[in-house]
Write the structure tokens for this entry.
Amino acid sequence: MEWQDEGIILHTKSLGERKQIVSLFTLSHGRCAGVFQSTQKSKGWVQCGGKVNARWGARLENHIGYWALESLGSNTAYLLDSPGPLSALLSAATLCQLALPERHAYPQLYERFQSLLRALVLPSWARFYVFFELTLLSELGYGLDLEACAVTGSNANLVAVSPRTGRAVCESVAKPYEGRLLPLPVFIGEKTEENVPNDEEILDALRLSGYFLERYVLGRTLPSARMRLLQRFTTMRKCA
């Protein structure tokens, strides 16, 4: 069988001298792996975050198959001088690699990943990353309910999230449970993308989504790529 799609490179692994196992997150076929015959030229663009046209083929559907890949011109090498955006890219790719089941399409998450890739050159890149993780949770069935207070139904003054239910609560409800709830940064509920959250808000947001990713999606400690991103904002907060 054979199919064609577009995709984002998540992970590569050497398979001998001239072959690689390449894992893609594709638009219509989800996460899929295959063997790719590398060349000297392809080494410059077969890298995490690269966008490609892909043709996958195998004798049977459950075989690993082979890739024919064509670069769409996106190259993430420029991020080598931008440790923050680079850590966000590696974290997003690693979470997709670990959390997404093979060959299940998630078009909304794919579009969110593309938005993140475009935003890595912007001052607000961390905001885009947070919404990538929230979309990942939602697509896998663990979406947080952040539209209204779980107790009062009000959509005003939402300040925290229950770690048990994933539902938001307003300030008056949260106050007696201070220290037992997860902070909800204001920017998550904003409709505009113009405001750039500060490092403390991003840190709270990463801890919020990370809590649910770790306990309900991965069932294990967050991967090192994600921990490095969290550590970056933890360090910056201590230095502030």
Q: What stands out?
A: The chain is about 35% helix and 20% strand.
